């Protein structure tokens, strides 16, 4: 993604760039999306908490060494103000025709920084069963 | 906690009130700490995502019907701006003398609203092993 998009992009653009960097196993692109703040936190499903750029980068490097992760974020719920966007998504991973017995829920928090919107928190965890499909209320805004 | 504290309290005060309400199994006090926003999200360890006041309240009511939860939030890492505070804590639960085989990591996100600081996101998940004890760097600020 061009650098101008990263500076002027919305939280949604940063989220798209994040899952795109994972799919391409592009560690540098991935780490550039995080805020320049040592209190950033990343929690992978079923794993211990990682704090700061060095810890977070080392674990992603390990994960991405075996190839890209193809994840589609779905069923977004978002709360925001001028400086913050708090996203909750279901991370959809292709299971072929099999019915998965768990799904992954992720919290992604974006803060507006001097460099543009950046990730300060990624918290992913597993929940039992296939992801529930949310009913769309008639007349409701899709988002 | 008096209502004035809830209006003028900091994110730390709201977090303290949250774990206090859990300990007292006070459902009304607990729900009053959440933002008046239907996009609020609560994820309990190993459970599916709950969205909105009705879903979140119903599940807490069920959990608290068997008594209060005594949780001490520890090892806080926080990132914030004027309108937002993003907390990561280890939820310490008394295991007696037993070495626990899992621990709970929680993300709590607070936004500043017209009513004061309020919770918009609680995401708790389990990680393997006992909670790691973080080294405190000599001369570092404790927070």
TrEMBL record, chains A, B:
Domain SnoaL-like: 16-127
Pfam families referenced in this protein's UniProt entry, alphabetically: SnoaL_3
InterPro entries xrefs: NTF2-like_dom_sf, SnoaL-like
Domain of life per record: Bacteria
Transmembrane segments: none
Protein name: SnoaL-like domain-containing protein
